[in-house]
C-alpha cells in the first residue's frame, strides 16, 4: 500500500543556461539537499535541462539555427551518461524525481528535440518519459509532438504518479486520461509565472504574488487537484535578472521565468507557494487522508461519474516513420485482411474464419 504520509518538493532553481554539464552538477546537489530534507518526490520545471528557449521568436533565423544546434548538444538523451548520474543521485537521496528536460530523440537518424518529463524511481531507474503532446504556438518550431503512448502513469510507493507539461494541464481529455489511469500524484511543469493582459498571447513576467489574479496557472493547478482529487506538485521555472553568458537581454524576449511553484492538496488548497521571483526548494508534507476526505465528497473515478453518458478513448500508439506493407491497420497493404489477422479474430470471437473473411470483404466493398 502507498505511504500514508509523504513530502512533495518543487525544485525552483535556475539552470546553468544551455550548459548540460554544469546543470547536471547543480541538479545533483539539489537532489541531495531534497533527500536530506525528507522529500519523497522532487519535481523540476519545464525543460529545466538545460533551460527553456526564451529566445524563441526573438532572434534571426541564422541565430535561431545556431541556438537549436547548441540546444541539441546540451539536451538529455535516454541513453545519456547524465541520465545514469541523475538516477544514481536519486537512489542515493532515496527519492523519486520528475525532471523537465529538453530530450534529444532516440530514433535512429533523428535530431529532433522533445519537451519531456523524465521519471526516476527511488531506486534510480528511469521509469519512463512523457513528451509534450502539442507544443504551444512558437514552440512548434522548437519541439516535436509527443507520442500518444507517453501519456502514462507510474506506480510508486507514495501513489500512482503522472504529469503534464505547461498548457497540457488545460487539456480536458488529457487530464481525464491520467485520471482514468489512476493518477494520485501529479507533476505539473511550467516555464514560469506571468500576468495576462487580456488574453494568453499578451503576457509578461510576474513581478509579485498579485499575478495570481490573472495568471492561468494558479486556478488551473487548484482545479486540477480538485477535479482529479490528486496531490499536485507544480514546479515553475526561475531565472535571475543576470543575462546568461553568450546571450543578450533582447534575445531572451519571452523570459517569464519568475518561478511560481506550488504544492496543492486534493481539495485544491495551496499548502506551499506560489514562490515568486526567487530560487528555492519548496516542500510540503501531505496525508493520504486528505485525498480520502475529498473523494468521500466528490470521486471522479467512482460515485461522481457517469461513464454511460460520457466516455473516453485513449491511444497507446507509438508513432513510427515507416511500416511494412503487412503492418497496416487492417493487416494487409491493399486494405484487406491478412490471413494471420483473420485467424486471430476468428479465435478471439469463436467464429469460423470464413465468416470473418466474408465480413471483411463486405466492409471493404462498402468503402
Automatic annotation (TrEMBL):
<protein>
    <submittedName>
        <fullName>Carbon-nitrogen hydrolase family protein</fullName>
    </submittedName>
</protein>
<comment type="similarity">
    <text>Belongs to the carbon-nitrogen hydrolase superfamily. Nitrilase family.</text>
</comment>
<dbReference type="InterPro" id="IPR036526">
    <property type="entry name" value="C-N_Hydrolase_sf"/>
</dbReference>
<dbReference type="GO" id="GO:0016787">
    <property type="term" value="F:hydrolase activity"/>
</dbReference>
<keyword id="KW-0378">Hydrolase</keyword>
<dbReference type="Pfam" id="PF00795">
    <property type="entry name" value="CN_hydrolase"/>
</dbReference>
<feature type="domain" description="CN hydrolase">
    <location>
        <begin position="6"/>
        <end position="288"/>
    </location>
</feature>
<dbReference type="InterPro" id="IPR044149">
    <property type="entry name" value="Nitrilases_CHs"/>
</dbReference>
<feature type="region of interest" description="Disordered">
    <location>
        <begin position="321"/>
        <end position="343"/>
    </location>
</feature>
<dbReference type="InterPro" id="IPR003010">
    <property type="entry name" value="C-N_Hydrolase"/>
</dbReference>
Amino acid at each position: 500500500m502507498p505511504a500514508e504520509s509523504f513530502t512533495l518538493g518543487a525544485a525552483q532553481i535556475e539552470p546553468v543556461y544551455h550548459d548540460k554539464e554544469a546543470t547536471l552538477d547543480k541538479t545533483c546537489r539539489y537532489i541531495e539537499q531534497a533527500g536530506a530534507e525528507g522529500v519523497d518526490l522532487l519535481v523540476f520545471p519545464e525543460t529545466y535541462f538545460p533551460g527553456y528557449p526564451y529566445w524563441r521568436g526573438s532572434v534571426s533565423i541564422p541565430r535561431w539555427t545556431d541556438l537549436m544546434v547548441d540546444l541539441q548538444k546540451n539536451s538529455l538523451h535516454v541513453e545519456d551518461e547524465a541520465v545514469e548520474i541523475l538516477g544514481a543521485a536519486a537512489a542515493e537521496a532515496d527519492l523519486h524525481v520528475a525532471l523537465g528536460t529538453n530530450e534529444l530523440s532516440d530514433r535512429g537518424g533523428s535530431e529532433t528535440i522533445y519537451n519531456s518529463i523524465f521519471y526516476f524511481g527511488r531506486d534510480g531507474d528511469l521509469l519512463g518519459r512523457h513528451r509534450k503532446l502539442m507544443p504551444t504556438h512558437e514552440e512548434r518550431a522548437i519541439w516535436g509532438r509527443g507520442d500518444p503512448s507517453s501519456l502514462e502513469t507510474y506506480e510508486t510507493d507514495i501513489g500512482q504518479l503522472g504529469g503534464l507539461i505547461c498548457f497540457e494541464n488545460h487539456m480536458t481529455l488529457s487530464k481525464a486520461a491520467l485520471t482514468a489511469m489512476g493518477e494520485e500524484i501529479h507533476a505539473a511543469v511550467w516555464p514560469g509565472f506571468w500576468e495576462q493582459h487580456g488574453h494568453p498571447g499578451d503576457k509578461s513576467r510576474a513581478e509579485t504574488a498579485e499575478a495570481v489574479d490573472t495568471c492561468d496557472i494558479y486556478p488551473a493547478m487548484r482545479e486540477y487537484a480538485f477535479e482529479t482529487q490528486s496531490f499536485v506538485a507544480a514546479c515553475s521555472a526561475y531565472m535571475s535578472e543576470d543575462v546568461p553568458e553568450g546571450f543578450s537581454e533582447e534575445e531572451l524576449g519571452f523570459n517569464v521565468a519568475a518561478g511560481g511553484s506550488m504544492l496543492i492538496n486534493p481539495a485544491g488548497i495551496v499548502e506551499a507557494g506560489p514562490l515568486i521571483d526567487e530560487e528555492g526548494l519548496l516542500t510540503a508534507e501531505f496525508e493520504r487522508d486528505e485525498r480520502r476526505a475529498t473523494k468521500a465528497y466528490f470521486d471522479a473515478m467512482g460515485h461522481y461519474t457517469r461513464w454511460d453518458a460520457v466516455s473516453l478513448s485513449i491511444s497507446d500508439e507509438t508513432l513510427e516513420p515507416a511500416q511494412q506493407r503487412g503492418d497496416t491497420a487492417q493487416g494487409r497493404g491493399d486494405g484487406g485482411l491478412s490471413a494471420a489477422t483473420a485467424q486471430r479474430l476468428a479465435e478471439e470471437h469463436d467464429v469460423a474464419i470464413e465468416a470473418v473473411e466474408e465480413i471483411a470483404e463486405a466492409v471493404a466493398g462498402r468503402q
